[in-house]
Amino acid sequence: MKSSIIRFFLALILMTFISRTKAQEYDTIWLSSLDIKKASTGWGILGKDVSCMGKPITLNGITYKHGFGTHANSILYLSLKGGSERFSATVGIDDEEKLTTGSVIFSIYGEGSLLWRSRVLKSGGPSEKFDINVSRIDTLILLAEGAGDGINYDHADWANAYFLSKKPAPITISRPSEPAIILTPKAADTPKINGPKIYGTRPGHDFLYKIPATGVRPMSFEASGLPQGLKLDPLTGIISGKVAKAGTYEVNFTAVNSLGKAQRKFSIVAGDKIALTPPLGWNSWNCFACAIDQDKVKSAADAMLKSGLADHGWSYINIDDCWMIQSNSKDSVVGGDTRNSKGNMNVNKKFPDVKALTDYVHRQGLKIGIYSGPGPRTCAGYEGCYKHEEQDALQFARWGFDYLKYDWCAYEEIAKDHSLPELQKPYIIMNKALQNSGRDIVFSLCQYGMGDVWKWGEEVGGNCWRTTGDITDNWSSMEGIGFGQAGLEKYAGPGHWNDPDMLVVGMVGWGPKLHQTQLTPNEQYTHISLWSMLASPLLIGCDMTQMDEFTFNLLSNDEVLDINQDPLGQQASRTVQLGDLEIWTKPLEDGSIAVGLFNRGLFSSRIVAKWLDLGLEGSYMVRDVWRQKDLGVYDSRYETTLPSHGCCLLKITRK
Ligand code: GLA
Known about the structure:
Layout: H1 2-25, E1 27-30, E2 47-48, E3 57-59, E4 62-64, E5 67-71, E6 74-79, E7 84-93, E8 103-110, E9 113-117, E10 121-122, E11 128-133, E12 139-146, E13 155-165, E14 171-173, E15 192-193, E16 198-201, E17 206-210, E18 213-214, E19 220-224, E20 230-233, E21 238-242, E22 247-257, E23 260-270, E24 280-283, H2 285-288, H3 294-306, E25 316-318, H4 354-363, E26 367-372, H5 389-399, E27 403-407, H6 420-435, E28 442-446, E29 464-466, H7 475-483, E30 497-499, E31 507-508, E32 515-516, H8 521-533, E33 538-540, H9 549-555, H10 558-564, E34 573-578, E35 581-587, E36 593-599, E37 605-610, E38 620-624, E39 629-634, E40 637-642, E41 647-654
Parallel strand pairs: 16-23, 24-25, 24-33, 25-26, 26-27, 27-28, 28-29, 29-30
Antiparallel strand pairs: 1-13, 2-5, 3-4, 5-13, 6-12, 6-14, 7-11, 7-13, 8-9, 8-10, 8-12, 15-18, 17-21, 19-22, 20-21, 22-23, 31-32, 34-35, 35-36, 36-41, 37-40, 38-39, 38-41
Helix pairs in contact: 3-4, 5-6, 7-8, 8-10
Alpha-D-galactopyranose binds next to loops.
């Protein structure tokens, strides 16, 4: 009896000792003490013990000393290697957004399975605490995502986040890299004519079109059925002149080289509409921003030709902000008198000769665009068109510009409010001025979607209108904008397009320092596929002089571009939405349908496109558009596996 009591006490002492040493084995490791720079975030900074705005982490009135401040959509990968026992934190939207409409869902994945997910946490609402077992986990993923209403105000805090850990300690790791697989087949040496099949012009206005064709040079061109007033240079394929009379002209292009001959039909519609297909070109903002100058614009035109992009139908070279005089600037390069004695806009010293520049671009068969805004100043503080609209439109036309991006910005100081008449007024004024300028100038409205611009953009003369704020080169920005276009399809059509902003593939950076896009290869395929399905203007945002093979592959797939340029001009609709999986469809002029299968999720997933769900019946030939390959005839469905954030673009034709 005595000995069993002694044994009992000995065991008790031993157990206490063991559990003490076990507890002592674990260290508290704050998440914010790790290299959190490996995370990605939708906006602001990656906050080490502060919010994404750099303020103390505060949830429901409690300020936390430790924590990781992010903004949806944000993602962080960690490697634990079984060294950690528990992970805990309190999550929610930081009190700095208490009065707004933010909403976030926090999720934690371990080895590809969901370990924990929060409720939808809202601005000013309760936070949520968790404490989970991670002892068997190697790869841990922390995710904070917008809860289905975009990512505005989603300041997502992981407050008091820590691991109970022994050795090895947790470390943050980079997102697993993906191979940049090239899918676009190389263009053949034999001639092939690409680009739009329909083109709008106004009678009596300057006409310029270079027949886009791949194949070895020298190549010669013919065009039968050209309207009176146009002539073709058979050596360059450049058509110029002025169409004399309104009408629809069915033209036949031929391109010939030593290996063969190609033909393509092309309709020229001389009437009151231009931009009958979405504009295809380049814009200086996403790469150079205010570090733009005349030589860079020239080099962009050279690169569009030399890279071969022009042979696939790309044609606009658009200058964005910062070419004029910056108001009140002391800088001798961009400062000075904003206008000359006649009231005409002056340019800054980085653009020594605008007319020589537009002539240079036009001589090569390309078009050129310019940027301004209805306010006294542009977004970057340069001279705007306020009270000089007519004069400036005439100046743009004299210089020979073919495209005007007209950016609201400082008009905010002029507009009385955001009522429809106030939102529309400056665009109505500039449209009238452009119509009277005697030149075909594509009118691009840039006011970030205010007042549902898609409902009235066409009415005020817009050929396209930005539907959102500015894009940046990360997944949350691109997917938020791209997939957020669902429902806007009824407002787009030939001559008037929704514009979800410019492309962020290749070397971007908003100048002067550039970097490779932060989008993964699969995300880049999704970007180009989705924008093509959306019949969006495609404006390349990278430095084309530094374009790598992968980026060229993204921008030179004629079958993808044909979907974007389809003459029917129908923007794709979201037909199926199943969690992270989406199917979008776009009817095409030839009766076939472009089908985009997308996976917005973090893990690869099987997707099934059932004909019934797409409103179809019967047998369809399925073609893989990126690979330009028929996959066979399918009777009721097509299924495949999509990588994380990846897509598959199909064209299906009734058999
Ligand atoms: C705004 C526009 C951008 C760009 C800049 C220039 O932010 O949305 O696309 O034109 O202005 O300052």
